[in-house]
Amino acid sequence: MKIALSAAALAVAATVTLWSAPVDACGCFAPPDPTVPVVQAGERIIFATENGEVTAHIQISYDGPAAEFGWLLPLPSVPDLQLGSDEVFNVVTAQTQPKYRLNRVYEGNCTFDPSRILRAANAGAPEADSGAAGGSGSASPLVIQDSVGPYDYAVLKADNKDEMLKWLNDNRYFIPVGTQDAVGPYIRPGAYFLALKLKSGKSTGDLQPVVLRYQSDLPMIPLVLTSVAAKPDMGIQVWMLGEGRAIPRNYYHTVINDALIDWNTGGANYNDVIIAATKEAPDHHTFVTEYAGTSSIMDGLLDYPGRFGSEAELAAMPDAVSFVEYLWAHNFQIQSQGQQAFFTQPAFPATLDAILGRYIPVPQGMLDQGYTASGFYSNIRYFLGDFRARNPQLFVNYSIDYRPAEMAQEIFERVVTPAREASKLFAEHPYLTRLYTTISPDDMNKDPVFSFNPSLPDWSNVHEATLTYHCGSYASDQTHTPATLVTESGYAQIFNGGFGGGTFQPPNLPASLRVEILREEGAPETIINNVDVILRKAGGCTTAGLELSGAAALVALAGLVRSARRRAKK
Amino acid sequence: MEEVVRPGRGRFGIVGAAALVVVTAACGPPSEVQLGGVAEDGVTFAPLEGDQPLVPGSQGGFHVWVKLRFTGFEPGKHTVQRTARRTRDERLVLTTRTGIAVGEPDASGTWETPDPLPSFMCPAPIGVSVIDEPIRFEVEVLDEAGQAVAHDGAVATPHCPEGEQAQFCQQICSG
Predict the structure, then answer these.
(1) CA A180 → CA A25, A190, A224, A320, A349, distances in Å?
(2) Which residues in chain B are contacts of A188 at CB distance < 8 A?
(3) Full-model pTM
(4) Contact with chain A for residue B168, Cβ under 8 A
């Protein structure tokens, strides 16, 4: 009997947070107080390349004061700058998120077998005991100075460091300590820097991704500059759109050892495994592939007929309540898929919340009581009607500045157009690759460059393992029943004392199954192969949390042999 | 009868080769593409041969600058495939496809890219140093079906600049 508990596993997987801190960006944050470098927690970038032009969607978030926000990015040519969409990052993250599913198999008389419990419940006569159920120069360097959406920006020539930094200082684009040296490699004749800051009066809630288009053969992340304000083991998430599978051109590629994954929690320790694996690669320079396959998984998620309605209709709404309800009716809320939809409250993108907040603000009294913008806007008719009548004290000095034409125009400029452009980008490029790494500032001494190798195979983001309970003639305690876990890569662990009880103790094994070089043509070149080490450990040795002996070891070895054959075929 | 010579298949590979006429349609003049480098002034078309400087790029990389001459092509956008391989082991250093808007030809029937194109060399692929290594550069003009209609190639040897960029160049171009 084989029961797939993928729903539960997915629910847990959806809670895995790779982005623990609130600051995400590519490039370098530039706070006004140069002695207090902003800690940059991660970068999330979507690259698309076509005909020598790179399109980069870069997600920026920041939790300092709005007046202190500044951001720098070296570029090979004067960029075309547009606003991006937070929603595209939400959706593409959900669609390509690594998922670790555990399929449970029940051998013998397992009273905790969910299918038995279900059958018993349907028959009205439970057969399981209740305790077992449910457990489980002098010239200005300035090239362009303009604004877009919430940002003021400048494009500066990067051929003279002193002139560029002076201009940034004079115009309140301050730079943190260490930037003087870090920008050195990017100071070149014919090069440029993009500097961003928030417009006066804008809040950090107004921050939204930017989209850059510039001429370059290959996309690159300026990590050396990022090191100025990065945190240890900073996550870097890259999506590459193109004609085939993307590769890190000058970084290694790691296939993680899935024996270290905590399958019982849907891979809650995934990021820890990645951190450990990156430290096993030469120079700590490596990426893992998290998804490689068709970009059609994004079809119809960002833009589809009927979504967003029309600017004219929206601008014609007679009052604030109908205005917001129009947004709900036309699916302005963040689009989510599958399991996530059950667990997340519908919400507008942060950019839309920020726009609405300036005209139809959430009453301060409600915020003080713990109400959220999502909650307020999702029931605005109630909150501005009955609720307000019953709780007038929460609406003291509250007013709405209802300007529908201005609001509609800004919403279409900052929310609708970016979502439609992003949707088009996925439609135009047939293949999507998601790459991830973690890296610490000391190791940020080489800028990763990305390219393609269309001959490489697809890579699923969904991973499955099988857990077989050995119940014998009778077992009622799921967490103490001997079980065998066989992971996707074929590693088998025998849990004589049961599986899933207590804290997960990963086996003492390398975090990398393989470290390899992916080139722009040909098969991967393996430089570190830990398969033998892992096989040897599983073949009778004792590892942390795992004891293998006798028949159990044979079962484990059988799984490993099957796996090795499978890998050899690949 | 159309003959297409493809790169890297043993039909080309002579150091310092000049333009290679490849395609002759049954009707109309032959279409040619000529791959060149840049003279010391940074603008003028020059043979792509011998030592070539690795020019600092804008995002921290180093590149070899090339120029292209198109003869017999209709003005308009054409797709150009450029590759670079290390000659001693055929390691791929660069493969990229670019859209180039070919302009009106001059009196001799040729149009030249006004600005040099950076051929991305560094950061070099892992284990593939490009410093002082002969590199074969090739260019193909592709038709709508992706077939080469013109082709040229040349071999040159990139070297790192001197001065403050030297160390960084050595670091990221040595593979």
Answers:
(1) 20, 19, 12, 49, 36
(2) 56-58
(3) 0.79
(4) yes
The ipTM, to two decimals, is 0.77
Question: How far apart, in whole angstroms, are the C-alpha atoms of residue A58 and residue B25?
Answer: 46
pLDDT digits (tens, 9 = 90+) for A174-225: 666 677 777 877 877 777 888 888 887 777 777 888 898 888 888 999 888 8
A52, A447, A517 ranked by CB distance to B99: nearest? A52
Residue of A185, A218, A519 lying closest to B120 (CB–CB): A218
Q: How many CB atoms lie within 10 A of CB A181?
A: 12
Domain-wise residue ranges, chain B? 32-173
**pLDDT tens, residue by residue, A275-306:** 999 999 999 999 999 999 999 999 989 999 98
Evaluate whether residue A197 is within a structural domain.
no
Please name the residues in contact with A189: beta carbons below 8 A apart, sequence gap of 6 or more. A159, B56
| Interface check B105 vs A, CB under 8 A | no
Parent domain of A414: 311-426
CATH of domain B32-173: 2.60.40.2550
- pLDDT tens per residue across span B128-138: 999 999 999 99
Alpha helices, DSSP H only, in B50-151? none
Query: Coil, helix or strand for A468?
Result: strand
Chain A hits for B59, Cβ within 8 Å: 74-76, 186, 191, 216, 220, 222, 447
Q: Is residue A397 part of a domain?
A: yes
How distant is the Cα of B61 from the closest Cα of chain A, in angstroms? 8
Give a yes or no: residue A243 inside a domain: no
Instruction: Look at B59 and A446 and tell me if their CB atoms are within 8 Å.
Output: no
Quick check: is A484 in a domain?
Answer: no
Cβ burial, residue A361 (10 Å; 0-12/13-18/19+) = middle
User: What's the CA gap between A308 and A311, in Å, rounded?
Assistant: 8
Q: A234 and A439 in contact (C-beta within 8 Å)?
A: yes
Identify the burial level of A359 via C-beta atoms within 10 angstroms of its C-beta, where 0-12 means exposed, 13-18 middle and 19 or more buried: middle
Closest CA to A366 of A389, A393, A402: A393
CA–CA dist A491, A506 (Å, integer): 13
The structural domain count of chain A equals 1
For residues A389 and A391, what is the distance between their CA atoms, to the nearest angstrom? 6
Contact A185 B92 (CB under 8 A): no
Give the closest residue to A545 by CA, choosing from A491, A484, A496. A496
Q: Which residues of A touch B81 (CB under 8 A)?
A: none
